[in-house]
Amino acid sequence: MKQLIRQLLRQGGFELLHHSGDPVLAEMRSLHESLRLQPDPVLWDDSLPQPAMQAHLRNLLQLHHIDLVLDVGANRGQFARLVRRLGFQGRIVSFEPQSSLQGQLKGEASRDPDWMILPCALGATAGILGLQVFRNDTFSSLHPMNALGRQRFAGLVAEEKTETVEIRTLDNVWPGIAGGRPRRVLLKTDTQGHDLAVLQGATEVLGCTHAVLTEAAVQPIYQDAPLYPELAGWLAARGFAPSGLYPISHRREDLALIELDAFFTRSIPAA
Q1: Percentage of the chain surpassing pLDDT 70?
Q2: I need a labelling partner for 134 at 20 to 30 A (CA). Which of 16, 50, 67, 207 fits?
């Protein structure tokens, strides 16, 4: 009888889905609904990798027994909320320099005793720089956007203002966030072209980092942004191997890859 009902529903264009509390399966269900209503199939290439990325992130958190997530380029706290949904119960420290986002971030963190917000940008050296804030603030960057970025993302990257922000290094702030004990770190950096500089300012922190997630460019949309091979080579020289590559955006005209989420794992020497 159940099989007959399922067949009849399918003939009518409906599908029964069993409820699951698994957050990755929940993301797949949500994605299914959004893609079903998405009139632009090109955007499927940007969306479909997300459940696989989340599954990989959860595996890294568990496999490496991560107890501290460093969320560099927090924006509105999307990544912090994601790792919580994936079951991470350790400490999160989020870095975000945009003043307009501070209230929302601090409000959310006030309900999570293990989530700390630091209102600064990170880089290779300390200093003061201008942050270009775009209409869609997820694109805001310390680097000017180039012609490809403006052509691909159009109205989303209309510049609204330049904000002066403090730059610190991760090594400099490390004593205040480590909690005075050994840590097993996942370092996520999503800084719109400034990710290698963040890593270069984290020599000490990388010593206790077991996994890295960084946004990486195949075709840069920001001036002076490093490409994926440079990031991968820099991390390989410090003992990290690629563990997962998940596309973020493509050129519409030919589907050439623009950016991706790149995961790296601390290499364990073969026995």
Answers
A1: 89
A2: 50
